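hey so u asked for the seq, here:
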Amino acid sequence: MLGEKQRVHVAAVDVGAGSGRVMLASFDGDRIELREAHRFETPLGVDPTTGYDCWDSEAIVREIRAGIDRADDMAPIESVGCDTWGVDYVLLDEDLRQVGVSVAYRDDRTAGMIDEVTAIMPAAEIYRRTGIHFQPYNTLYQLRATAKEHPEWLAVARHLLFTPDYLHFRLSGIVSNEFSISTTSQLLSLETRDWDADLLELTGVRRSLMKKPVEPGTVLGPMTGRDGRRPVLVIAPGGHDTASAVAAAPIGGADEAFLSSGTWSLMGVESPIPYVGEQALGFNIGNEGGVCGRYRVLKNLMGLWLIQRVRKEFGEPAFGDLVAAAAEAPAWVTLINPDDPRFLNPASMTATIRSLAAEHGEPVPEGLGPVARAVFDSLALDYARVKDELETLTGRPLTHIRIIGGGAKNELLNQLTADSCGIPVSAGPVETSALGNAALQMMGLGVIGSLDEARGIVRRSFGVTEIAPATVVSEGVRDRFRLIVQATPAAH
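ran it, structure tokens below
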């Protein structure tokens, strides 16, 4: 172990669509310790000029700088890096000033854009080139909408920075695009790991707006605006929060899946090769960029977004009370498809759950417990569906699921997942995005030598809870869920 004066401290900035946090990560040569320096709600509102749902990027930067200072007060940090959700971006002009607004991915301006784009380039060809699954909020369709509604923004833009790239720019003055976050755009070529000129043309974006992506762990430069404080480096981790999270996941082999459980659920396997055949396209499997040359072969599922909205609409009870109410409700009574596009950003999540239950002939849930139980039961069945698809695609059975992220604290959902999937699951660590972020910074600093070493450190530093299947889910329940999924209209 390192001596006290040799401990390495870094600030991991992990910003989700609901909240952001700045974590102080300290490494003594054997274990990593995480301490929260600052937490804030990610500011989202309606822009009065455009009517778009937008992020307040200035407020986010202020919160991050305050958090970095607090982390540095707790222990002298060597570096800082940022990870965020995918697909969203900021445009800058030639004077490096923001152009337009920071539109949030849940805004409905992309309605119809998938159909419009695939009428020009077939979906199979887009998938062959990028390996990225089709979602209405992908950057490809956001930019197509911008080109139609605000072409003047693209006309004066000189740089396109994804959200973590923009945060790194504001911290260092360095303009860059990081690899893992770039892949979420559906604009990056699998073959060249650089931008696809034909897809950029479809969006109305000039190639000159984009930088060749840098790998996770790249040192970008010194942090600016330190006001007399000691120098700190800005290092790009896995800019996509799931890339950083999976980097810290205690994956034990090719027959294990990860399930990053938060606002979104991202379930998949780590692979040295992408899967882009007809079967993968049919499953709408994504091949997102990972770290150290790996791919995350995964499905992007709606996740705990549904329950976050339900909780808010029921007066924000303590999360433990919500889970307890769900646990008391009968199992498998009401099923929904959590990935129904109508759940993306409804005026009322509870009303939409009730409406779609009725639409599919399911009992309409009444009260917090039954509504929450419908969400948890359905999420678990969704995970089982993806497990089957991954096994079919890779040709090998999965033997374990590693649940990471905030959802790992949900004991009810963890047990339902084990029961639905019929294999053991493990829960934890919780703050894996921050852990992976910190580990990749330390790899950039030369303190940690490899991804395998980083995962070993995480396993030593943080325990996990093992959950075995306890009950068998009937085929009747599974058949009901399959029929609901099959009857769900696709997003376009």
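The chain has a mean pLDDT of 96. The chain has two domains: 4-236, 251-428+462-492.
lmk if thats what u needed
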